[in-house]
Amino acid sequence: VLPTPAPPPKEDQGPSVAKPTPSTQSQSSVINLLSPENGGHVIVATNDRWLYAIDGDEKSWQYIDVGVLGSWAVYGFKDERSATFDTFKVLILGTDSWNLKEFELLAGNDSATGKFESIGKFQTQNVRFFKDPYQGFKFPPVKARYFKVKVISSHGFSSVGVYEFQLLGVQER
């Protein structure tokens, strides 16, 4: 696994990257839970552009938040089963004012429109890392049926665009 950049800490949130707790899951069973090939899918979102954030196309981007910050999407996993995850990745291929800057990750178990608990708020760096252009954000392992991404800001533009998201974890059996 290649190292990924740590986001700068938020003043009111403390460090935005937490060390994961030891896992009993084998590394070989860790997958991108959001990939449609692995059963990941959008359940509900503020617009249909969120589908592009998990379509596997690393060459094209799409606006997911157009002019009104605060849009969000709820993703589900294969067969609507729970998963345990501890790493979220955002593909950033270069410096652009529309790149996703601040975002919040949330997890839920009730329903796709039910109660969600915040995993944390995170911030990307507006640069490309050539060794691995996916900027990774680690947090203590979370077990949930639903995963929500909420846009907070871009790196300056009024809209937010993304290439790809990944959520690394293990699907429950």
Q: Which descriptors would you attach to this protein?
A:
173 residues; mainly beta; four-stranded antiparallel beta sheet; 0% helix
Could you outline the blueprint of secondary structure elements for this entry?
Elements lengths: L30 E2 L8 E5 L16 E4 L6 E5 L6 E9 L8 E9 L7 E8 L10 E11 L1 E9 L5 E3 L2 E7 L2
Antiparallel strand pairs: 1-11, 2-4, 3-10, 4-9, 5-8, 5-11, 6-7, 6-9
Helix share, percent: under 10%
Low-pLDDT ranges: 7-25
**Secondary-structure element order, as H and E?**
EEEEEEEEEEE
The major sheet is characterized as: 5 strands, antiparallel
The span between the termini is 24 Å
Structural class: mainly beta
Q: What do you see in this structure?
A:
This protein is an all-beta fold. It contains no helices and eleven strands. It has strands spanning 31-32, 41-45, 62-65, 72-76, 83-91, 100-108, 116-123, 134-144, 146-154, 160-162, 165-171. The strands form three sheets. The chain has a five-stranded antiparallel β-sheet with strand order 2-4-9-6-7, with no helix packed on it. β6 and β7 (116-123) form a beta hairpin. The model is unreliable at 7-25 (pLDDT under 50).
In short:
This protein has no helices and 11 strands. It has strands at 31-32, 41-45, 62-65, 72-76, 83-91, 100-108, 116-123, 134-144, 146-154, 160-162, 165-171.
